[in-house]
Amino acid sequence: MEKTIDNIKKEIKNFNPKDYYDLEKLRIKFLGKKKGMITLLFKELKKFTLHEKKIFGKIINELKKEIQEKIEIFSLKHKCFKNKEEKLNFDPSSPGKFIEIGSMHPISIIKNRIIEIFIKIGFSYVDGPEIEDDWHNFTALNIPTDHPSREMQDTFFLYKNPDILLRTHTSSVQIRYMKKHHPPFRILSIGKVYRNETVSSHSNFMFHQAEGFYIDKKVSFSDLKQTIFYLINSIFGKQVKIRFRPSYFPFTEPSAEVDIYSSSNGWLEVMGCGMIDPNVLKNVDIDSEIHSGFAFGIGIERLALMIYNIKDIRIYFNNDIRFLEQFKSEF
Questions:
Q1: Is the dihedral of CA 8, 14, 15, 17 positive or negative?
Q2: What digits encode the pLDDT tens for the residues 137-151?
């Protein structure tokens, strides 16, 4: 055994592999699991006494550690011979591979733009769950039990638990936030909402909605109008005509629909808004005698249709690269 150990020490001293394959041969020669020299030395230890095992075992372990360190050093020094040799096979005169440049989805572009617009005037962006319960989605928002939006043809309820549903609007985020915080606050939330509207213009069960709300002392409808003007002017430009039409929403009073004028299509509805109903504030323990606020909601798909002149809303979900590559991340 002593002679074998001396031979290994000499070979380690002259350890100088030329390439990856040479390094691998040396690794197998010394550390191979079946016939490696170090492995065989450990097997020979069975023949020795306990005292001899301790002496030679220590020497063999030190040799093994030294070999492992040398292999690691040579691998790092030459930056892995295998990769180096593979690079030598590369023909620098060959044409490069075409890398297809992607782009952001138009819905993502509009979403990011809306967030940017509202952050500039002190709004904070928050998110909430897409699976909701009846109280956050309907009851707390002053939606009575006989309201059409509660019926099965509009809302996706869980079959085993009718109290749980896919949220029909991002207004549920408003309730969750107001329960945990005290006014004043300005909040924006954007996310997916779900409605069974296969006969509607969406032709889809899911779309994206942006909702904002502002609560403080003495918030008025004038504050709401100025915020809406700011949003629409930031998106479409200051030359666009805007009008407010009286409307009805269970969670706001008074309420209004907002239209913009297009020379090709006339007046087009773009969003709904209104002053938050005192009952909604009461449901989240906010004193409506002291605080007031407004809320608004706008569909992202509809905005993108108008901005990019998209003719069919279903194309958003077709994953057609020819459609998507038209859009740039800059708005």
A1: negative
A2: 999 999 888 877 676
